């Protein structure tokens, strides 16, 4: 059996995962080995020259289990934004073939060409969190020693998930309407001013509701008290949508380049007044481009505010975000 490693590379015992049997840990080792075998047998994508393979294990309503395997793919042109991650490719197959029959995901394995383990990227974490329970095991393994791996529950990898996570459109709208009577302005002055600005701007975006009825805007507050607010730009092809927090970054970068005030906090909100942490892509961009100390917060399912987190803290176990350091 492969040695199981935690984030700090100490052996993982059954005491660490008391609900796991030796048989379950053995299947985890098998799934990791299977993912590495898949990674090693296909030609790397032409743009990144970096291979990622995923194995998704699920259990059906009748108790039988199955696995789905997938790899990453990239467009053969200069627009790298169209790349498809292995984990999301596997989950798409699961949704097509198994989800409607009552199957549920129990484990996601991610292996890469990197020497050390890398957990799924932020976009995959968010995509998985919208379909899978937070207790799903996420295993990461690198190429230096494919027989070793790390494990974290999915919920640990994406703090502050959206209160609309896992819901269909109509249910999202119903929840937003219900929360609109419960949510309040945060007590912190910086967060409060950004929250008010974001909510007001979101309510002015009715024209975009023809694409999707939830409307988002975000505001950043700088140290000098200045606010900058933008709305999400929705695309009829959903993948073309640019989230509001990502659209704050040009102004944040401009201020930094010109020696202006530093950003203190960011609040993203919808037209119901429900605050959301930055979506996954924005969290990653902020962390990768030097804004990891900016504070973010969000409403929970009961309408109360979460404790503010730094952007970096909102992306735990994300070693890839240090590449520009």
Automatic annotation (TrEMBL):
GO terms for molecular function: catalytic activity. This is CMP/dCMP-type deaminase domain-containing protein. It comes from the Eukaryota. PROSITE patterns: CYT_DCMP_DEAMINASES_2. Residues 26-150 form the CMP/dCMP-type deaminase domain. Gene3D superfamilies: Cytidine Deaminase, domain 2 (3.40.140.10).
């Amino acid at each position: 059996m492969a040695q199981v490693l935690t984030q700090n590379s100490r052996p993982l015992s059954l005491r660490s995962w008391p609900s796991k049997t030796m048989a379950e840990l053995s299947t985890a080792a098998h799934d990791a080995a299977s993912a590495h075998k898949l990674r090693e047998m296909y030609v790397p994508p032409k743009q990144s020259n970096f291979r990622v393979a995923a194995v998704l294990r699920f259990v059906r309503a009748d108790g039988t289990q199955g696995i789905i395997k997938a790899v990453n793919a990239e467009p053969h042109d200069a627009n790298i934004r169209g790349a498809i991650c292995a984990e999301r490719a596997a989950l798409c197959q699961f949704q097509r073939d198994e989800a409607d029959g009552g199957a549920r995901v129990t484990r996601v394995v991610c292996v890469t060409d990197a020497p050390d383990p890398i957990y799924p990227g932020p976009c995959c974490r968010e995509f998985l969190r919208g379909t899978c329970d937070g207790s799903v095991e996420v295993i990461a393994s690198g190429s230096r020693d494919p027989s070793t791996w790390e494990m974290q529950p999915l919920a640990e990898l994406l703090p502050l998930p959206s209160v609309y996570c896992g819901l269909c459109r109509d249910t999202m709208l119903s929840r937003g309407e219900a929360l609109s009577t419960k949510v309040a302005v945060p007590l912190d002055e910086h967060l409060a001013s950004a929250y008010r600005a974001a909510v007001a701007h979101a309510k002015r975006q009715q024209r975009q509701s023809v694409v999707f009825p939830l409307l988002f805007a975000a505001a950043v507050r700088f140290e000098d008290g200045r606010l900058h607010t933008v709305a999400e730009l929705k695309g009829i092809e959903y993948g073309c949508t640019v989230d509001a927090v990502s659209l704050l970054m040009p102004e944040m970068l401009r201020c930094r380049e010109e020696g202006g005030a530093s950003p203190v906090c960011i609040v993203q909100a919808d037209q119901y007044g429900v605050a959301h942490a930055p979506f996954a892509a924005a969290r990653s961009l902020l962390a990768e481009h030097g804004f990891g100390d900016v504070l973010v917060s969000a409403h929970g399912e009961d309408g109360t505010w979460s404790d503010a987190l730094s952007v970096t803290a909102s992306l735990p176990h994300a070693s890839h975000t240090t590449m520009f350091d």
